[in-house]
Amino acid sequence: MPTRMYRSFQGLLLTGLFVFFASKAVNGQLTWYINSRFVPLTLFGILFLAVLAQTIFTEVKRLRAHDEEHVHEHEHATPANLWFMIIPLLIGVLIPARPLNSSAFDTKGLNTSAPLVSADTSSLIFETESEKRNILDWLKLFNYEDDVTQFVGQKASVIGFVYFDEALGADQFYVSRFVVSCCAADGFAIAIPAQWPDAASLKKDSWVIVKGSISSVEIDGNRMPLITATSVESVDVPDQPYLFP
Amino acid sequence: MQTMATDRLPRRFIIPVLLFVLILVAASMFPDGFFTWFWDRLNVFATIFLGIFVEAIPYLLLGTFASGLVEEFVDRDQMSRWISRRPAAAAISGAFMGMIFPVCECGVVPLTRRLFHKGLPLSAGISFLLAAPVLNPIVIISTAAAFGWDRMLLWRVGLSLLIAIITGMIFSVEPNAGKILKPIISLPTEHDHSHGSIHKTFMEKVRGALLVTVDEFFDMGRYLIMGSVLAAGLQTFVSQSVLLTLGSGPVFSVLIMLLLAVLLSICSTVDAFVALGFVGTFSFGSVLSFLVFGPMVDIKSVLMYLQVFNKKSVFYIVTIPFMISLLSGLLLNYLLP
Question: Among A28, A29, A44, A200, which residue's beta carbon has the most beta carbons within 10 A?
């Protein structure tokens, strides 16, 4: 492939990547893929892609002037390198973006028990208002505190997506979230059970905000918080679908 | 060159097209539920793939940019003045060089290749390749952020250094680096036209560095993409919970953590946060082996190594760290249960 053509393709692909990532950044979907902690660094990377694209286009212009003297073949121009860069663009554009949901449970597992995150921050969570605690907070409290009767009757308000499991009764469902440390690849699901007479009317994977009071139950030998719901409302996918430990 | 490429293109397309037709035929025979299942899977795959890719991009750019800067601003004489030719000294200085280059395992490969090109001795380059992803300041800070300035950090850095230096010294038995290294095919030819890099202005050098960055980015990005596709595919279709339940007992837990380090293919700058999630389920030794082996070997880095070294060398670069990580993990599991 002639150098100029190769360079032009490089420039186009860099621009493509820049536009794709920049659009993700603008519509706030970067956190569907990575922990919000890494967003600033990624933005920096996206800007750098633009700088590189600009450099390449300037180079193409320079080559155009140069080529009038003699056309030369670019030895390093292996077109295969170019084709590969199309893959992320194709995957990103053709497959509709969606945060991880219960479809990933088969392989990633639903972690309803176990020491979720090693850092014991339960004393901090203790002081936050009960209605501001998220699913992870509640699970941590029930994991680390010996006496959970103190939480029984507290008001809870949590957001998550709906998941049904055989371990639960017909009027129960799980409110689940994925916990992501760095990117979607390391995400694992957590969930707490909720009781709601109309549970069967809910749609799997739909996002809901569940309000009610906490009690303690045992599921498969694990002590878990259960929300006896007074209201279950549908909501949009939150800006940050994952929880970050 | 050009005729070869155009001759080969149609033939290369035959297999994908046939495969596509085969898939269509096969698809018409699948039960109804298959497609929703498959579509769901594909969504999960896309999210995980883009997760790995998006997260790795800034680090890959950083590494390739470092490589570009080395190409333009470091010349061969400087390199030989900095680095000793004696094997042990070269291996040790190579390993500690990691402290000044903030690159992770995606970025370190193009940079090492460029340093070899500038005359870095083989043993120094190998130990740099293995140590830099752990010894770099970003990784040390992120490990400390996850585990505190504590024994996990000390062990991680110490063990990585040890493995890097041992592997580097083993490679010093081969005096002819040319036998082990593959040539860099992606050298911008423009450089040959100008008369050395000495007469270039600063801005010309920066421009040259950015062009090298782009070439390296495309060259290495290819393997990052292949690796991410594989890792995401495995994660979409192979159950991790099965892996984790298998991982009990002092021997199996280390093996499972090593396997997981390879499969997850997460960047060394962030893997400490992931490892944090395993503390409690897994012993100190097992988590440590994850943190030491992961930055040296995973799916994408092995694919990149294959572009720089011959197969036999890649075999050693993978197995020596594997053996030492495994042994140290086992030993620590017995000493510090």
Answer: A29
> Measuring CA to CA, which residue among B134, B80, B90 is closest to residue B293?
B134
Q: What letter would DSSP give residue A75?
A: T
- Chain A environment of B41 (Cβ under 8 Å): 103
Residue B51 token pair: 């997760």
What residue type is assigned to position A147 of the chain?
D
User: Which residue is associated with the tokens 């750019």?
Assistant: B61
Segment holding A205, helix H or strand E: none
- How high is the pLDDT of residue A74? 55
pLDDT band of residue A14 (cuts 50, 70, 90) is: very high
Using CB atoms, which residue from B41, B266, B276 is nearest to A185?
B266
Would you place residue A68 in the very low, low, confident or very high pLDDT band (cuts 50, 70, 90)? low
Tell me if chain A has a CB within 8 Å of the CB of B248: no
CB-based contact A106 B188, cutoff 8 Å: no
CB-based contacts of B28, cutoff 8 Å, min separation 6: none
Q: Which residues fall within 8 angstroms of residue A90, CB to CB, at 6 or more apart?
A: none
pLDDT at B89 over 50: yes
- Secondary structure (3-state) at A71: coil
- Using a 10 angstrom Cβ sphere, with 0-12 exposed, 13-18 middle and 19 or more buried, the burial of residue B85 is exposed
- For B265-280, what is each residue's pLDDT tens digit? 777 777 787 777 677 6
Nearest to B95 by CA among B120, B67, B75, B62: B120
pLDDT at A13: 95
Of A13, A84, A186, the CB nearest to B266: A186
**Of B273, B268, B301, which is closest to residue B138 (Cα–Cα)?**
B268
Rounded Cα distance between A240 and A140, Å, is: 20
CB contact under 8 A, B276 and A119: yes
Placement of tokens 């081969």 in the chain:
B174
Q: Would you say residue B151 has pLDDT above 70?
A: yes
pLDDT score at B193: 43
Average pLDDT, chain B: 82
- Which of B19, B93, B106, B98 lies closest to B62, judged by CA? B106
B163-176 pLDDT tens trace = 999 999 999 887 77
Of the candidates A10, A92, A181, the beta carbon closest to that of B276 is on: A181
CA dist B121 and B226 (Å) reads 29
Tokens at B206, concatenated: 């920066």
Residue B219 to residue B223: CA distance in whole angstroms: 8
| Chain B residue numbers touching A14 (CB-CB < 8 A) | 214
Burial class (CB in 10 A: 0-12, 13-18, 19+), B160: buried
pLDDT of residue B155: 94
Interface mutation target, options A84, A105, A205, A220, chain B, most CBs of B under 10 Å: A84
The residue of chain B with its CA nearest to that of A89 is: B50
Bridge partner list, A214: A227
Given a cut of 70, whether residue B198 has pLDDT beyond it is: no
